[in-house]
Amino acid sequence: MPPTLLVLLAVTSVQFGAAMAKSLFDEIGAGGTVFLRVLFAALVLGLIWRPRLADHPRRDLALALLFGLVLGAMNLAFYSSLDRIPLGIAVTFEFVGPLGVAVFGSRRPLDLVWVGLAAAGILLLSGFGGESLDGLGVALALLAGGLWAAYILISARVGQAFPGGAGLALAMVVATVPLAPVGIAEAGDELLVPWILALGAAVGILSSAIPYGLELEALRRLPVGVFGVLMSLEPAVAALAGFVVLGERLAAREVMAILLVVAASAGAARGAKLAPRDT
Fold it and tell me: What angle do CA 79, 85, 86 make, to 5 degrees?
């Protein structure tokens, strides 16, 4: 399969997994949903990579612990934002994080153009100070973006310390610990309902196991600049997933804003990699 298609499939899997997750909010809330999503992702990735604690020094294990805490906070912030604003808009605000990493990683004069485009898109999306969007939802999406930037920077070090996806699998296990009380408190015994468990497992697989495997394979055969450009399509794919799965319609202004951020991210990614994520 062509590597470009692998990345597009990974992006689609992540965003349609997020749309499926949002459909669970009425039953178990954002906290319960993110707990199930991370729990099943940890189980699947743990079975695939089987990380061994004894093979690594304490410094590497501390790094995996930090990675897991960032991962859990990022997912909780993102899913909480989805509870308040449409998927496509949430992902667009969140993408400010990796866009910033790409710009600072490249440092070309042309990057000022991409920053301007992204700023125009965000300003347009915010409605010029209007009240069309939930302010807390926007703040949570931006927080998720900042945590995504931290995730990218830490993941580079984790990738050096652990083989394959073992570091991510270990971090997923760590992330389930602080998310457990949040999810259990919000969802209660609804977490034991069979169809909710099944949908939570599907979300975990679509959002982590499938895309991460596809991205790893694509990066073996694809320049990182091209990979970053393809990853920049995430806000647009998220808007499509929100429309198809959740019936979320966007105004023309919001669609234009998303396209501006996609263009800015694609341009910036030509000089720096937008790393795989796990939101």
Answer: 90
